[in-house]
Amino acid sequence: MQASLKPGHTIQIQDIFNRADSLCVCPFCWGASWQLYGPDDYVTLVQSVTGWNVTLEELLTVGARRVNVMRAFNYREGFSRDRDKLAEKFLRHRSKVDPPMANV
After folding, report:
1. Percentage of the chain surpassing pLDDT 70?
2. Whole-structure pTM over 0.85, yes or no?
């Protein structure tokens, strides 16, 4: 995959998973790789349950809005961009001496 396409794909996958979370559906069945159900099935599900005439793009917008609301909440609570990273323990390689549950 071209490096220039990765940010767009990352955002799209993020929106897909956030859409699934906002609809309270299982990400293993409705995940980004369409394990059991595809994107059109999302639309059919929402239309059948709610009666709303929604499109896939509108459902993806729901996912994007959810991400923005979570970021706004975190910012309001003092969680800034400089703290938005993995903890150091996830970035270092474990040595053979370090037992698996040592840092839990």
Report:
1. 80
2. no
